[in-house]
Design goal:
The chain is mostly beta strands and 160 residues long. The protein is built from no helices and nine strands. The two termini are 24 Å apart.
C-alpha cells in the first residue's frame, strides 16, 4: 500500500444571488486526520453552518447537493461530538467584513477509501448550526442551519 498524502480542493460558488463564495482546501497524510482550511466571503456577520453534503450534483444549485454526508446513518451533531454525520463540521464565523476563516483537523473526513468525500460537496448555510442541540424538529438532521448560500464540488488536487 502506497503511503501518500492526498489533497483536495473545493471552489464554493454563490447559490442564486447570495454573493457568498469561498475556497476550501483539504490535506490528509496517510492514516492521519484531514486538515480542512476554508475562507468564505460575502456572509452576514456571525455563525453559519458548514457541512459536507452527500452529492456533488449541483445542477439545481446547492439544493441538489442532498443531505449531510452520513454513511453511518447517525443523527446530526457537531464536529467534536461522538455521534455525528461525517459531514458535520459545525459553523464558520464571519466577521463584520463578511469573511469567515475556518481551520480544523477531522478524523472522520477522508480523501480516499470507501467513505472518501471526493466528489461530494461543501455547503455553507444562512443560519447557525445548533449542532443537534436546538430542540427544533430539524436539529437532529440539519442542525436547523437554514438556507444554502454557497456550495462547490470537492475535487482531487495536486499539492498546494
Amino acid at each position: 500500500m502506497e503511503h501518500k498524502t492526498h489533497y483536495a480542493i473545493c471552489i464554493m460558488n454563490p447559490d442564486g444571488d447570495s454573493g457568498v463564495k469561498g475556497l476550501v482546501k483539504l490535506v490528509q497524510e496517510h492514516g492521519g486526520k484531514t486538515k480542512i482550511s476554508a475562507e468564505i466571503t460575502g456572509l452576514a456577520p456571525g455563525l453559519h453552518g458548514f457541512h459536507i453534503h452527500e452529492f456533488g450534483n449541483l445542477t439545481e444549485g446547492c439544493k441538489t447537493a442532498g443531505p449531510h454526508y452520513n454513511p453511518e446513518g447517525k443523527v446530526h451533531g457537531g464536529p467534536d461530538m461522538e455521534i455525528r454525520h461525517v459531514g458535520d463540521l459545525g459553523n464558520v464565523t464571519a466577521g463584520d467584513d463578511g469573511v469567515a476563516k475556518y481551520e480544523c483537523e477531522d478524523a472522520l473526513v477522508h480523501l480516499s477509501g470507501e467513505t472518501s468525500v471526493i466528489g461530494r460537496s461543501f455547503v455553507v448555510h444562512a443560519g447557525v448550526d445548533d449542532l443537534g442541540q436546538g430542540g427544533h424538529e430539524l436539529s437532529s438532521t440539519t442542525g436547523n442551519a437554514g438556507g444554502r448560500l454557497a456550495c462547490g464540488v470537492i475535487g482531487l488536487s495536486n499539492a498546494f
